[in-house]
Amino acid sequence: MDEFSLIKQFFEQPNAAADKDNLHLLKGIGDDCAVLRVPDGKDLVFSLDTLVEGVHFPHNADAAELAWRLLGAAVSDLAAMGAQPNNFTLALTLPSLDQNWLQRFSENLAQAASQYHITLAGGDTTKGPLTLSAQVQGFVDRDQALLRNAAKLGDLVCVTGTLGDSRAGLSLLDKEQLNAAQHYLLERYYRPEPRVATGLIIKAFANACIDISDGLLADLGHILSQSQLGAKLLSDAIPMSSQMCDVAGDQALQWALSGGEDFELCFTIPKEAWPSMQQALQGHHIKVSQIGEIVEQTGIQLYQNNIWRPVEKAGFNHFQTT
Amino acid sequence: MDEFSLIKQFFEQPNAAADKDNLHLLKGIGDDCAVLRVPDGKDLVFSLDTLVEGVHFPHNADAAELAWRLLGAAVSDLAAMGAQPNNFTLALTLPSLDQNWLQRFSENLAQAASQYHITLAGGDTTKGPLTLSAQVQGFVDRDQALLRNAAKLGDLVCVTGTLGDSRAGLSLLDKEQLNAAQHYLLERYYRPEPRVATGLIIKAFANACIDISDGLLADLGHILSQSQLGAKLLSDAIPMSSQMCDVAGDQALQWALSGGEDFELCFTIPKEAWPSMQQALQGHHIKVSQIGEIVEQTGIQLYQNNIWRPVEKAGFNHFQTT
After folding, report:
1. Dihedral angle sign, alpha carbons of residues B250, B252, B253, B257
2. Which of B45, B48, B80 comes nearest A91 by C-beta?
3. What is the C-alpha separation between B185 and B164, in angstroms, rounded?
4. pLDDT score at A299
5. Closest CA relative to residue A61, chosen from A110, A136, A11, A130
6. CA of A238 to nearest chain B CA: how many angstroms apart?
7. Do A319 and B6 touch (CB under 8 A)?
8. Could you tell me if A67 and A109 are in contact, meaning their C-beta atoms sit under 8 angstroms apart?
9. What stretches of chain A show up as alpha helix (H) in DSSP?
10. Virtual CA dihedral for A187, A188, A193, A195, nearest 10 degrees?
11. Domain residue extents for chain B
12. Nearest-angstrom CA–CA distance, B159 and B175
């Protein structure tokens, strides 16, 4: 089997149906380039994410979990722009042609793609240390993409879902015999659910938005530095699951503030938009919480135990040397 | 230095000017996604290419050459669609934070990007075995992208430039004290020049097109299998440089037919379009040669030494196991 039949066997067939349903993707896998017709009145948004064996996931990680994490994390960037996912490309570097691995990976990738309404449009397969990159692309109404630099003084700071669950899941990786709560956290780690539907609702109200991949403090920090503003957060308002609190114990708040890979959205909205947004969110299965507000003084201050104190952002950096 | 300041220092600054000049790229590096406005009446075409250390290039390869090869090879896919390059993303996986390497790589990437009129729009930097992926994106008039499956019976088969030069350059990698001809071939290997300008001219005339990355026979083979046709080629018509012939000796034709990474274009045009195309190409610095024609019988036949014989396609496959 060579590279061409590999692509054909594992990646063209499962997506034949998805291709047919995607009227914007005029040409998918199989030419020098894919061809996309962006609808009139829309802008294209796109983001590229990489996972490396031994860095982002352990050796011998389950190919199914890799497929879900790769695509979930990448699609989360589209959610943070308030975008509708459309297509993605895959750069797959493999140490060997392991057909069982490819079967499991491609099946799960096709399932994840179907769930996120995104079509595999092309890519490159090469030999080398296991590395996966995905570029996801989506559509937003012209000039309506949610950017990081648009927070306004007095805005409410909001987050979706609960924070710290993925960090708690990480702490359970080697544990055997999980109870239901622990199983829930592990799933939150392995299969983060990108908040696409939530992003599409809140985009009408939000000023600035980011997805939480490096931890709330680090990612809110990007909104603040790009908007040249600061934030005050109420520790009691940070949404945490009971499952996470049980596993985290004393570290619960720390994990919620700094744990990475939750892939929830953090965004800011004008105070007066809160009631309308709540109305628009009625019946939606993801809760949105107010956790603080945007202030003039740069940095982040946290209200805890009746005092305000500045907090350091502490995200995950691949090349942190200090 | 962390990941964020790395991106800022090496990749944001050199492209600030390029970003300003690219009116279609509404948002580049620095948000969850880049934002692109595809012009009215245009389709977007895109392609993802990966280079892996030890597979596509040797250990300790010059960072400058990597930057040029990565972008040159990727932009060549845009040329093969008859597209105008617009922007690209970079997935950079690095074993360590070598500032000298990054300085040289990013400077040359910016130079190559400037030469190919393409803007760095975003990407991902991660720690791991040296691997580089680039997704390039460009514009074509709606429904005018040059595809592989559109060759017609009776079409002329054409190629740009000369073939086999890159293969000859490869054979000179370890040689010291190169003469001018050998230096030329090595440059053809290190810095393939994507045929963007030629693609933009020939697109008005061509039916099918591909860029020659795996060798003429293999790549023409893709056009033929997707068009369900065959081709007859005249060995005497295959364009070869005198420099290549000198280095290749008896192997010259073999290298021209099967050598990879020439990044010339192979395309088919109706016979009657040849004179108009030649007129459109007047003053253009790249020669286009007729090398044969499209026939009904599948496969490729080569006329050499007064006989026709079928030839096997023999391209480069990463996972060839037979």
Report:
1. positive
2. B48
3. 9
4. 96
5. A130
6. 23
7. yes
8. yes
9. 3-6, 16-21, 63-79, 99-115, 165-170, 180-190, 196-202, 216-227, 242-248, 252-258, 274-280
10. 160
11. 3-141, 148-311
12. 29
| Residue from B36, B48, B209 whose CB has the most chain A CBs within 10 Å, to mutate | B48
Instruction: Write down the H helix ranges in B22-171.
Output: 63-79, 99-115, 165-170
Does CATH number 3.40.1160.10 belong to domain B148-311?
no
Shortest distance between the Cα of B75 and any Cα of chain A, in A, equals: 10
Task: Tell me if B33 and A4 make a contact (CB, 8 A cut-off).
Answer: no
Laid out side by side, the sheet with B299-304 consists of: B208-211, B265-269, B156-160, B288-295, B230-234, B299-304, B307-311
Tokens for B36, please give them: 């692109």
Domains A3-141 and A148-311 share a fold: no
Query: How far apart are the CA of A310 and the nearest CA of chain B, in angstroms?
Result: 22
Cα–Cα distance, B212 to B263 (Å, whole number)? 5
**Residues of chain A positioned with their CB less than 8 A from the CB of B147:** 27, 31
Phi first, then psi: give them for residue A251, nearest 5 degrees: -90, 5
B48 closest CB neighbour out of A81, A89, A142:
A89
Are the beta carbons of B167 and B255 closer than 8 angstroms?
yes
pLDDT tens, residue by residue, B69-124: 999 999 999 999 999 999 999 999 999 989 999 999 999 999 999 999 999 999 99
Find the closest chain A residue to B314 by CA distance.
A2
The angle formed by the CA atoms of residues B78, B25 and B35, to the nearest 5 degrees, is 105
- Residue A256 Cα to chain centre, angstroms: 16
CA distance B104 to B116: 18
CB contact under 8 A, B127 and A320: no
Question: For A39-55, how does the pLDDT look when each residue is reduced to its tens digit (9 = 90+)?
Answer: 999 999 999 999 999 99
Total beta-carbon pairs less than 8 A apart between chain A and chain B: 219
Whether the predicted pLDDT of A321 surpasses 50: no
The DSSP line for A112-132 is: HHHHTT-EEEEEEEEESS-EE
The helix/strand/coil state of A287 is coil
Give the model's confidence band at B7: pLDDT under 50 very low, under 70 low, under 90 confident, else very high.
confident
Radius of gyration of chain B, Cα coordinates, nearest whole angstrom: 20
Q: Taking Cα atoms as reference points, which of B163, B169, B289 lies closest to residue B214?
A: B163
In one letter, which amino acid is B268? T
**Closest chain A C-alpha to B240 CA, distance in angstroms:** 24
| Best to test chain B binding among A29, A33, A70 (most B CBs inside 10 Å) | A33
The architecture in CATH of the region B3-141 reads: 2-Layer Sandwich (3.30)
Q: A121 and B90: CB-CB below 8 Å?
A: no
